[in-house]
Amino acid sequence: MQKSNAGLVSRSFAVLAKDIRLEFRSRYAINAILMFGITSLAVVSFSVGQSSLPPVLMAAVFWIVMFFSAVSGLAQVFIREEEAGTSLVLKLNGPAEPVYLGKLFFNFLLLSTMSMIITPLFFMFTDAPTDGVVAFLAILLLGVIGLCAATTLVAAVIAKAAIKGALFAVLSFPILVPLLLPVVNATEIVFDGGAFIDISAHLQFLLAYAVIMIVGSLLLFRFVWEE
After folding, report:
1. pLDDT digits (tens, 9 = 90+) for 84-143
2. How far apart are CA 117 and CA 41, in angstroms?
3. Exposed, middle or buried, 79 (CB in 10 Å: 0-12/13-18/19+)?
4. Among 65, 83, 100, which residue's Cα sits nearest to residue 221?
5. Are 178 and 67 within 8 A, CB to CB?
6. Who's near 14: CB < 8 A, 6+ residues apart?
7. What are the C-alpha distances in Å from 105 to residues 56, 81, 152?
8. I need a surface site. Which of 30, 77, 131, 205 has the fewest CB within 10 A?
9. Nearest to 60 by CA among 169, 173, 187
10. How far apart are CA 206 and CA 146, in angstroms?
11. What is the pTM for the complete model shown?
């Protein structure tokens, strides 16, 4: 059992390392995500000007940027395999689970990198309060994990479709609605001066959502990948 787990981890990190090398060569996904995120924040900043947004609007704007940034780049982990013709090599050289986990880890690194750039800019461009930064970071971490867990499987489903970008957004949105509503509500509470305990129920839900999506995706991914 330990050897099996070790093999799963090593193969997952091998897939992750391959995707990181490819991303450093093309930089397509990270550029798409950052360009969308930074452009969206700049447009919001110029539109609002000196006006102050209420907490609910600030929370909604932040997660709208996160959602559409994820949609613009996270699908590339499988689309790139199909376009380069390397998906067959992955299917022949290992089981489906390490492929999913490797792609999941890559998407998490990608979206985390974007979050580390977008989040400070968001606080600079808006007058969002920084008092509850620890609670906000907890929401952000669980939100990013949930986004990656849900969209990685969808990316595998639409990789062979003709209209990938539009289909990815359409399929992702219904799955992500149960995630987006609590993250927006929890972020609004934090921006409105709420304490960590005020969002504990939201954090528990976000953690449960991420676990369910990862476990469910692991169970379903084999059927999608080997189709």
Report:
1. 667 777 777 667 888 889 889 998 998 898 888 888 888 887 777 878 888 999 999 999
2. 11
3. buried
4. 100
5. no
6. 98, 102
7. 31, 16, 10
8. 131
9. 187
10. 7
11. 0.86
Q: Could you tell me how far CA 19 lies from the centroid of its own chain?
A: 16
Q: Is 52 exposed, middle or buried (0-12, 13-18, 19+ CB in 10 A)?
A: exposed
3-state secondary structure (DSSP) of residue 53: coil
- 3-class secondary structure, 169: helix
Range with lowest mean pLDDT among 2-11, 20-29, 96-105, 127-136: 2-11
Residue 50 exposed, middle or buried by CB count within 10 Å (0-12, 13-18, 19+): exposed
Whether 75 and 151 have beta carbons less than 8 Å apart is answered as: yes
